[in-house]
Amino acid sequence: MAQTQKKFMNSSADDLLRAFKIKVTGNIIWAGGITELILSVAQFLLGNTGQAVAILCAGVFFTGAAWFYQGRRVPILVRVMFIGLLTIISVISIYKNGTIGVYWTYPLLVACFFVFSGFLGIIAAALLTLIFGVTAIYAMPLDDGWRIATTLAIICALGSVFVVLLSELQKLLRKLVVTDTLTGLHNRHLVTGVLEDAIYRFRRYQRPATIMMADLDHFKQLNDTHGHLFGDQILKQVAERLQSVLRRNDQVFRVGGEEFLVVLPETGNAEAQVVAEKLRSLVSEHSFNGKDANVDVTLSLGVAQYAENQTWVEWLNAADSALMEAKRKGRNQVQVAEAPAERTAEPA
Ligand SMILES: Nc1nc2c(ncn2[C@@H]2O[C@H](COP(=O)(O)OP(=O)(O)OP(=O)(O)O)[C@@H](O)[C@H]2O)c(=O)[nH]1
């Protein structure tokens, strides 16, 4: 069981990206908080006691928040407060110190793209550009004010383009991570989510669902005889044939070298058995055309309908055991998993 769980429990691209974003936002808040602590000392030394106390409070709050939320998502309210407070400090600084006060606006503008995700970052950066630009024009000679407002707007525009490109790249990466490049089918990364959805629908609406584990027979022999590239061509054609029979809402995954998982929502054992037979005969009864030869390939399948109180690992194991049984009984056949022994629901 542990092996099945390990095989399918890969972190998804989304999980990895989420963890990365949490780390970046946390680090920015750390850096911002510590910078404020240092700045407050500088303000004390300059004799600006009021400003120093305000910055010190902000510094203590944000280093505390960064420490408290380590490894977790920092709540939006804290992030808004972080950017908001630094914006107020920067505006006061521009107003009081003129050009010297502008320096902090640039890193703050860039930080918006990291502290808020996607379009929220663009909106925050645009808002800050407007606030700083207007303050600069108002508080400085017009020549300086316009220059500062323009450079801030350029940074905002470049950052926004970067965010849009990054979100496109993210979509592409996600697609690549969940797609098997040889067959174009989904790979195992989406399996857990799809099975959990099916289990949810069963528990909530009593909708049946059945899975099939399908494995090509003696594929090693085919590879050894015709070569790996030839084997690849056959795998592609098998994937096409499997898809040609299935319904739109059925899903096929390539979960191993020559192993496929088919998920049939709204389908019970009897109906799934018919589909499995169809898949088996579609593969076994028509030759495959490789580059240099035509070959006959057979397919073994294990079918398992979801049974109450099963976990997704147990469900997969049931289909896997049925597949093993099909292999053991001579291959090129369909085996249906035995219904699991009655079990009472585990306490929530
Ligand atoms: N061409 C090709 N072969 C692959 C790929 N992934 C795995 N294989 C091969 O698939 C074969 C699987 O061999 P086995 O696990 O022994 O299974 P089998 O020969 O099909 O035997 P049974 O499953 O018991 O019928 C190995 O030779 C792998 O190298 C792939 O992407 N392309």
Automatic annotation (TrEMBL):
GO terms for molecular function: diguanylate cyclase activity. Its cofactor is Mg(2+). Keywords: Membrane, Transmembrane, Transmembrane helix. It catalyses: 2 GTP = 3',3'-c-di-GMP + 2 diphosphate. Residues 207-339 form the GGDEF domain. It comes from the Bacteria. Its EC number is 2.7.7.65. The keyword rRNA processing does not apply. PROSITE patterns: GGDEF (PS50887). The keyword Transmembrane applies. CDD domains: GGDEF. The chain crosses the membrane at residues 28-46, 53-70, 76-95, 107-140, 146-166. Pfam families: GGDEF (PF00990). This is diguanylate cyclase. It comes from Pseudidiomarina terrestris.
